[in-house]
Design brief:
heterodimer; A: about 130 residues; mainly alpha; 3 helical TM bundles of succinate and fumarate reductases; two-stranded antiparallel sheet; 4 helices; about 5% strand; B: about 160 residues; about 60% helix; elongated; membrane (chain A); electron transport (chain A); tricarboxylic acid cycle (chain A); SQR/QFR_C/D (chain A)
């Protein structure tokens, strides 16, 4: 904030990370449009297919890869969106930092666990908890 | 940032205001507070915005259900059958339908926002039309999808 304001074509350049966040939100939105339509198609394929149908679906590398990409970009987009909501409604800096940290950790957990399950299903690994020492 | 008060209306001076209509922003500047919800006249873009944020929140919960489905598949046939029996119950199907509707509306409302970000459809009339289209399209997608699911027997109550 101490730096002098910069302008490009009479529009003020963001002082901190605002412009980068704006671009990341739009980029993830654009990529999620086709992925959401593919997700609807996949939901159609998986509905009522049961366990064997789901296993067969995951054995296709295209399905597994697209699902992992969709999950990661969705969680990234979700993390940014939840940050906007927290910024809007939580004004106490310590509460905001704590809440954003908690949300970030949950997003990371969801992404890591999801990719772990997808990779196992794609490789046709034995059902868990096999391989986890149980 | 001081603005001169209107003649004869000293309450518009932020430095002496007692009504709480001004707020100190994080950057230290004093700004008038936006009128709150009960002041606003109903307009469709307002509902479009509220419902889009609501859908975003619902989808955040929805990702947990997707994560649970992945876990059930990875834990084998017994876990999958248990998960499918819970999520195939009327309450479970209602949750899946809610996720479908939230995803459909977040998609159409998101496209609407990208149109606006590109600088189009920003007059009140065009903005209202875009909002109506995004709401109706989301309903058609979600309800249509579930009608087909039931009609083809992929999902049964």
């Amino acid at each position: 904030m101490s730096k002098p304001a910069r302008y490009v074509k009479h529009v003020k350049v963001s002082e901190r990370e605002g412009a980068g966040e704006w671009k990341a939100e739009r980029l993830s939105s654009l990529v999620l449009i086709p992925l959401a339509l593919w997700g609807l198609w996949s939901a159609w394929a998986l509905s009522g297919a049961g366990y064997d149908g789901a296993l067969g679906w995951f054995r296709s590398p295209i399905n597994a890869t697209l699902l992992a990409i969709t999950l990661l970009i969705s969680v990234w987009h979700m993390n940014m969106g939840l940050k906007v909501i927290v910024d809007d409604y939580i004004h106490k800096p310590s509460s905001r930092t704590a809440l954003l940290g908690l949300i970030g950790a949950l997003c990371l957990l969801l992404a890591a666990a999801g990719v772990f399950f997808i990779v196992r299903l794609a490789l046709g690994s034995a059902p868990l908890p096999a391989g986890l020492g149980a | 940032m001081s603005s001169s008060p209107l003649p004869g209306d000293a309450s518009n001076d932020p430095t002496t205001d007692q009504s709480g209509r001004f707020v100190r922003q994080p950057n230290g500047r004093v700004r008038p507070l936006s009128p709150h919800l009960q002041i606003w006249r109903f307009h469709i873009t307002m509902w479009g915005s509220i419902l889009n944020r609501f859908a975003a929140g619902a989808l955040s919960v929805g990702t947990v259900f997707i994560g649970a489905w992945l876990a059930a598949a990875a834990f084998g046939p017994d876990a999958y059958a248990w998960f499918a029996s819970i999520m195939g119950s009327p309450l479970g199907l209602l949750i899946w339908f809610g996720i479908t509707l939230a995803a459909a509306y977040h998609l159409t409302a998101g496209i609407r926002h990208l149109v606006w970000d590109a600088g189009s459809g920003l007059t009140p009339k065009a903005a209202n039309s875009l909002t109506v289209v995004s709401l109706v399209a989301a309903g058609v997608i979600a309800v249509g999808f579930w009608i087909v699911l039931f009609a083809t027997g992929k999902v049964v109550l």
